[in-house]
Input
Amino acid sequence: MGRLILTPAAPIARRARLNPQRLVLGLGVAALLLFVAYPLLWLVLGAFGLPRGFGLAGFTRSFTRAANVMPMVNTVVLALGVGVCSLLIAVPLAFATARTDVALRRVLNALAGLAYVLPPYLTAVAYIILLGPNAGHINRALAWAGLPGFNIFTGYGVVFVISLHVFAIPYFLISEALASVDGAMEEAARMLGGSRWAVLRRVTLPLVAPAITGGGLLAGVASMALFGPQAILGLPAQLVYLPTRIFGAISSYPPRYAEASAMSLVLVVLTVAGLAAQRLYLGRRSYVTVGGKGVRPARWALGAWRWPLGLLLLLPLLLAAVAPVAVLALAAVSKVWTQAPTLDNLTLAHFQAALFDNQTAVRGLLNSLKLATAAATVAVLIGVTVAYLDLRTRLRGRTALDFLAILPLGLPGTVLAVALLQAFIHPPLVLYGTIWILLVAYIARAIPLAARSANVALRQVDASLEEAARITGAGWVASIRRILLPLIRPSLLLGWLLVFIPSLSELSSTILLYSSGTETISVAIYRLNDLGQLEVVAALSVVLIGIILVALLLLQALSARSRTSVGTASATG
Amino acid sequence: MQRTRITTPITRRRLGGLIAAAAVAGGGWRPARAATGADVAKAKAEGKVMLYTSLDTKIVDAVIKPFTAQYGIKVEYYRGGSADVTAKLLAEADAGQVRADIVDASDIGAFLAMKQRKLLRAYDSPATATVAANLKDPDGMWVADRLTQAVIQWNTANAVPTPAHWEDLADPRFMGKLAFFSSSNGDGAPRLYTLATAFGWKLLERYAALKPLRLTSPQVMTQIIESGERSAGFLTNDNIAWRSKLQGKATDYCFPAEGVPTELGAVGLPAAAPHPNAGALFYDWWMGAAGQALLADGGKYSSRADVAPPKGNPPLSSLKLIVPDNQKLFTQRADILDRLTSIFGGEWGG
Amino acid sequence: MARIDITGLGKDFAGIAALQALDLVIEDGQFVTLLGPSGCGKTTTLRLLAGFMTPDRGRITVDGATLSTPQDCVVPERRGMAMVFQTYALWPHMSVFDNVAFGLSMQRVAAAETRRRVEEMLAIVGLEGAGPRSPSALSGGQQQRVALARSLVIRPGILLLDEPLSNLDAKLRERMRRELKDLQQRTGITFVYVTHDQGEALAMSDRIAVMQGGTLQQYGPPLDIYERPANRFVADFMGAANLLEARVEQVQGDQCQVLLADGARFTAGLHHAAQPGDRVTLMLRPEDLAILPAAPAAAGNSLCATVLDSTLLGSVLEYRLQAGPVVLRAQAPRGTSFAAGATVWLAAAPNRCIALA
Output
C-alpha cells in the first residue's frame, strides 16, 4: 500500500467582494427597521402632533378628558379581571392534566389549544347568540327555568369571553413548568413523610409559582390588546377600553392622530409594564430546570374521581372551544338564528352569501389567505435572519436587532395600526390604501413569534454542521441552502403555521388599516356583524374556523414529526 | 315602467323651507349650464366603479345589479357607517390614494368636511334636475340623494305601553327596555343632536337614565327589537323599521307627530377618483329615476320630487320634519360628541 | 505542499485575549498537535486556521499566500483545507454517500468521478458499502470514519482535526490513533490536530505545540516535550510528574547540581540559563524513580521516603510516598512489594532529572 497521490488543493483565492451573506442579512435588517422601528418613530412623533404641528395637546387631552381616562381605568380593570379568571380556569386544569390520572386528559389539552386559536371576536359573537341578555339561548333557557340570566353586554361579559380565550396562555405555561419540575424533588419530599397535599402546597406549588404569576400577567396583558371582543361586547355596554377608544379617535372624522398616538403610548406602557413584570418575576424566581430531565413523577391516582373531575374540568373548555363553534355552525345553517334548528329552518344560503354573493366576504376570504400566506413567509424569513445573526455571527448591533424583533410584543394591534397609519400615509413611503400596509402590519405582528421559532429551530442545529459544509468547499449560500434550511425546514414550517393562523384572523390592526378592496375575512365578519347579518357572519366564521382547524391539524402532525427529526439531528450533530 | 309621482307643490315648498336654513349656507343653486351627463364610452373603457356608501347593502346590491347589466361596468363597494366612509376617504386623501369613484353618506357634515378639503369635484348631472335646489350644494359638489327619518320602533308583542311620542319613551316603564343606535365613531350623533335641539337635551338625559342598549347600527337595533331583546328603540332608520314590518316581524314604527329628525344623505364625486367617468355614469344612474326608485323600493325616501315614498309610508308632506343645522353640526361636531359622551357614556369618537 | 506560517496571531473575546500572539511554523506533510487544557487557545487557533474567525492580530499564510489578517480573511471554502469536528458534524439529512460526495459536488466533479472517488475513500476508511446508509444508523467509530472520508475525499492540503477522538471509547480511541497516523503518512496531508489528551499527542504527532492561557508554552517533537519540558506547566501537563522545590548549587554546561529542602542533592539536566542560588523545580517522573529498600551506595540523586499506599495501574504498581512535606509517586514492576509505613529510598539517574525554571 503506497502513499496515496493527492493532487494539491484548489488554488487559494481572495475573498469575493460581493458578499451574499451581507446582502441577505442586510435585507432582513432593513425590513425590521422599516416594519418596526420606522412606524414606532412615527407613533412617538404623532403623539407630539407631528407632522401637522408640534405640541403636547395629545398628551394633555389623553389625561384630562374623562372620555380618555375612563378607558385607561377600564383597561387596567379588564387586565386584572382576566388575569385572575384565566388562572381560575388554568391552574386546576394544568395541575389535573399534569399530575393526576384524570379522565379526558388529551381532550382537555387539545381543547385548550383550540380555545387559543379561535379568534376571540368569534367567541364574542357566539356568546351574543348564547348569552344575549334576553334572546340568548342560555338566557332563554334560564328564564324558562325561572332563573336569572347573565348579560354578556357587561364588563363581566367582556372579562368572561376574553378569559375563555387567554386562559390557554397560563395553562400551557404552568403545564410546561409542571412537566419540567424534577419529580425527584416531589418524591424526596414524600420520602420525608409529606402527604400529597403537603407536597403539593410546600414543594410543587412554590416551584411553579413563577409560571402561575407570569401566566396570569401574560393573560392580562393579552386581554388589553383584544380589540374584537372589547368592541363587539363592550361598545353596546357603553364600556370603552383603550383599543376601542383609540379606534374611535382615529375612525371618526376628522381623525385625531395626536390623541390616538398619545393613548397608544399609554397602552404600550401598560403592556410593557406587564411584560416586564412577568420577565422579572420569572427571571428572579425560576427554579424550574429547563429541558425537563429527571424523574417523571407518578400521577396521582384519583380512583372514582377520575371521571367526575374530568367532566368538571371539561366544562370551561366546552364553554371556550366547543360551544362557540357549535353555536356558530348552527347559526350558519339556520334561516333565522333565533329560531329553533328545525328542518324547515335549515339552509345553506348563508354559505352561498359568504362564499359567492357578498363581495366583501369573498374579497375578505381571498385577501386573508393571501395576506396570511405572504406575512407568514416574510416573517419567518426575517425571523431566520434575526436568529441567524444572533446565534451564528458576532456582528455588532445584533442585540439591538433582537430587541427590535421582540418589540412588537409590546405593541397591541391597535397601537401598531396607529403607528403604521402615520408612517405610511405620507411620503416618502405611501402604503395606506393598498394591501401592502396590511401585509406590513401582519409581518410586524408576526415577527416576535417567527423570530422565536427560528431561534429554537436554529439552536437545534449545531453550527459545526454548517462549518463542515463551508470547510468542505461550500460557499455561504450553499451551506444555507443545502445544510441549514433542509435541517430546520420542519421547525420553520411549524413556525410558519404558528404565524399563519393568527394572521388569517387578524382584526385589531386590520380594522384601522383596511380600505376598499383590501377587506379581510375579519373585517367582513366585523362589518357584517355591525349590520346584524349574524347568519352570514356565522357562515363566514365556520369557513374561517375550518381553515384554522386544518392548519391546526397540520401543525400537530408537524410538531410530532419535528420532535423526532430533532432527535436524530442532535444524536449526530 | 313609470314609478314617478308628482308630489304636491306644498310638499316641495314645505320641505324646501325646512331644509333651506340647514343644508345650504348662502345662495341658491347657480343657473345650470346644460347638464350633459357622463361619457358612456369612456366610462365603459374604465370598466369599474368603486362606490363608498353608508347605505344598507341590500339596497346597494339592488341598485348595482341593473347598472352592471346595462353598462357592463362592475361596481365594487366599500360599506361602512357614514363616519367610516368619511374617515376612510379623508385618510386615503391624506395618503394620496383615493380609491372611491363616488361617495355616498348620510351626513351632510361629512360632505362639508370633504368640500372644505377640496376633495370633491363639481358635477352637474341631468339626473338631479328634479331635486329641489336647496337640496344641492351651491357649487355642485354634492347633491342630496335620500332623506332618512329617525323613527320610534317597538316590538308589538312586548312594548307596553305602545309609544307614539318621543316623550313616551322616557317613561320609567321602559327602564332597561330601550335601544338606540350610534356607532363608536359618531354615526347617529346628528339625529340625537337634532332631537335635542328640538325637544331639549333633558330628553336625552332622561333616555340615558333608562339605561338604553346602544347598538352599532340601525340594522342591529332592529334585530334587537325583533328578537324582543329590547321592547322599543328611538331614532332608528325609517327604512330599516319599514323593512322589518314589511317582512312580517313583530315590530311597528311611527313618525311622531311632534316632529321627526331628518338626516340628509348625499352623493358626490371625489376629485381624485381613479375612474372618473364610470363614477359619473353611476352617479347619473344612482340619481336617475330608476335608481332612486330602487332606493324607494328599499324603504328610502328619495330626494327626487318625482319618486314616490316607500310603499305604505306617508308622503313627506304629511310629516313634520326636523332638519338640523348642518353647518353647525359640522363645525361643532367635537362638542356635540363630547356632550353625547357625557350623557350616554361609551365611545362616540369624540 | 502546504506549509503553514503563523505569526503574531491573536484573538480576543469580549476584550479578553483567547490567543495572545502565537508564532508557529507547521512544515508540509507534518502531523502537528495543538495540546493544552480547555481555554488554552488551541481551538481558537484551529478555527482561525479554518477561517471561521478573523484574527484581531497577526497573520496566517499557507505556502506563502496570506489567508488571514485582521483586515482580510479568505473564506473557509477557499482555503484548501478540510476539517473533522469533535461532534463529526455529519449531515443527518444526507446518506453517508451524500455526506462524502458533498465536497466533490461543490467542486462540480462529474457524477461518475464522484462515485469512484467516494467509493474509494469509503474503502480506505473501511466503510465499503456503507454509502446508502444514514449516518445516524452508524456507530460512533463509523461516524468518525465518515467524517474523515468526507474531509479527505476533497484532497485538502491541510486537514484540521478538532478533538476527533474524544467521543469514542478507550479501545476504539487507541485503534483510531494508529489509523489516523497511518492515513496521514499515506496521504502526506498536513494534519493540525487539537486535543487535550497528552497520550494522543505523544502517540501521533511529529510536533506538539503545548499551549496554555493563550500562549505557546513549548513546540517540538513529542520526545523532547516529554523528556525536556520547558517549564513546570508542560512537565505537569505531559504526564504525572513529581515536582520538587530546589536551589541551584552548581552549573556545568547543560547539567547542574541542586539541593532539596531535606538536604538531598540531585544532578539534573538544565535547559535554561541559571546561576547558583536560583530557585528551580526538580522534575522526577514516577517511571524514572527506582524504589530501593536501602540507601544506595553512591551519594546523591536519591531521597528517603515512607510508603503510604500502592495502586495497580496494570503493567506497573504505582506507590505514593511521603518525603518530608510532599507526597511523591513512583512506579515499580509488579513483582515488588513495599508495605505501607516502610522506609525506602528513591533514586533517579541524572539524565532522567530535569531542573525547571
User: Anything to note?
Assistant: Confidence is low (pLDDT under 50) at residues 1-14, 16-32 of chain B. The radius of gyration of chain B is 19 Å. Chains B and C do not touch (no CB pair under 8 Å). DSSP finds 13 helices and twelve strands in chain B.
